[in-house]
Amino acid sequence: MTGSVEALGVESGTAVADIGFGGGLGLRQLIDKVGPQGATHGIDISTQAMSDARRRFRREIAERRLHLTQAPMDRIPLPGNSLDRAMTVNTLYYVPDEDLRPSIDELARVLRPSGRLVVGLGDPDFMATLPFSAGLRLRPLDEVVTAIVAAGLVVVDHRRVGTSDRAFHVFAAEPSKG
């Protein structure tokens, strides 16, 4: 998670989102980085994730530093060009094939022209060896990059977090300038 947050380049006072925030580790990091003048949005389809986050981040919600919304990635309920930074980590495994392109398009839609999207996922070859991977959509990395580019974004960085075959992949993308 930390590698994904670092790749975002979050600045104080900005508007950021963690889409598919799960346990909320990324939310905590984003809230801390944007500070009291920033806004963090947490969007997740899971009722349990929403309930846990409402309990865990009660103070940040009351202070209007965190805004939680239950929604799927392909229908983010935010205006276009509303986020400086957005990330989705370990979520694409759960996105049906027919929803991959609309989901990445939606992530691109909510970014400002100067924004940045980070997509983080485990190495698909390694993930396939894990006992819990049955039923997950382990897409080749080039398929993820193709969806990012098709959404009008340019991949500006691809980091491997770790050096073994267990490495985590972090793609940073920005809206195309032309």
Tell me what you see in this structure:
It is a single chain. The chain is of the alpha/beta class and 178 residues long. 33% of the residues lie in helices and 29% in strands. The chain has seven helices and seven strands. The protein has helices spanning 2-8, 25-34, 47-56, 58-62, 97-109, 124-127, 141-150, and strands spanning 15-19, 39-44, 66-70, 83-89, 111-122, 153-161, 168-175. It has a seven-stranded mixed beta sheet, sandwiched between helices. Helix 2 (25-34) links the parallel strand 1 and strand 2. The longest helix has 13 residues, at 97-109. The radius of gyration is 15 Å and the shape is globular. The N and C termini lie far apart (31 Å). The model has no long low-confidence stretch (mean pLDDT 93).
What is the compact description of this entry?
With 178 residues, the protein is α/β, with parallel strands linked by helices. It is 33% helix and 29% strand.
List how many beta strands DSSP finds.
7
What is the residue-mean pLDDT, rounded to a whole number? 93
- Please indicate the percent range of residues in DSSP E strands (runs of 2 or more): 25-35%
For the biggest sheet, the summary is: 7 strands, mixed
Number of helices: 7
Identify low-pLDDT runs: none
Shape assignment = globular
What's the arrangement of strands in the largest beta sheet?
A: 3-2-1-4-5-7-6
The helix/strand order is: HEHEHHEEHEHHEE
Which features characterize this protein?
globular; alpha/beta; 7 helices; 7-stranded mixed sheet
